[in-house]
């Protein structure tokens, strides 16, 4: 009887926590909450909805909605509403959560369940003796994401995702399976912005197909090893002649659109938030040659591209990995909200 009661208590706590999370998330999306939080931006030459979204760290879908726009094409000198994202305002320590000890609980099991380390559980609960836990005792935990912010936790090969945002189809990006399209808000917004930027500059550019990011709470996503913490994405390549691909298709030097692919990768890399990109070595050649043709020097390209140093040389943000002839895999850096991230 006591056991059932404790279990119920735990469930109630968890539900309260989840409700709190949902509430703070919807508060963050509520544009009308406070009018003094609006800010405006006058569009300059050379800017697109994509670069503006990136600059203010907001979503393309948000910009479209706030400004009642139907496409990403905007005239210069238009004034746009650009509310700065909740996400970028100071990272706060995750809120404490209480776990009530049930039969069979150990610090190890609790740590695993909440995605924190045993050492952390010990540090937050110095008064408790891990070898003498008693039913009903309260364990204090600081769960990442309890404040409603998205958090990439741990390694991309074995981490988790808290408060992930499902990437939706936006101009320039077509999401194939929303259930596998969860990333941190920062990652999702960056991708949307990059897709919109290409579409704004080349109105005939097809949408890219978004393959996997992560599942809702992160963790294993077959057949991938990574894609576990909301910082990885698979994307199709732009095909020459603005051919819209129905699915992932192997590219060749002849079909690969070096102009648009280079532009998108450069925009993402310039955001400072890309750790690396896997692109088949054969496709790096047209990227390299195109970049030279528009004025980059080999020295400038050295940190960006592995080519022409050979596919086995570990160098360059854009580098070879097997299986990337039909899609690019992008790994984003750890963001300021992320925890234990590496
Ligand atoms: Zn991948």
TrEMBL record:
Example GO biological process: proteolysis
Keywords: Hydrolase, Metal-binding, Metalloprotease, Periplasm, Protease, Signal, Zinc
Name of this chain's protein: LysM domain-containing protein
CDD domains on file: LysM
UniProt xrefs under PROSITE patterns: LYSM (PS51782)
GO molecular function terms noted in the UniProt entry: metal ion binding; metallopeptidase activity; serine-type endopeptidase activity
Pfam families: LysM, Peptidase_M74
Signal peptide span: 1-27
Superkingdom of source: Bacteria
InterPro entries hit by this protein: LysM, LysM_dom_sf, Peptidase_M74, Zn_M74/Hedgehog-like
SUPFAM superfamilies named in the record: Hedgehog/DD-peptidase, LysM domain
Keyword Protease belongs to the record: yes
Gene Ontology CC: outer membrane-bounded periplasmic space
Residues annotated as domain LysM: 39-82, 97-141
SMART domains hit by this protein: LysM
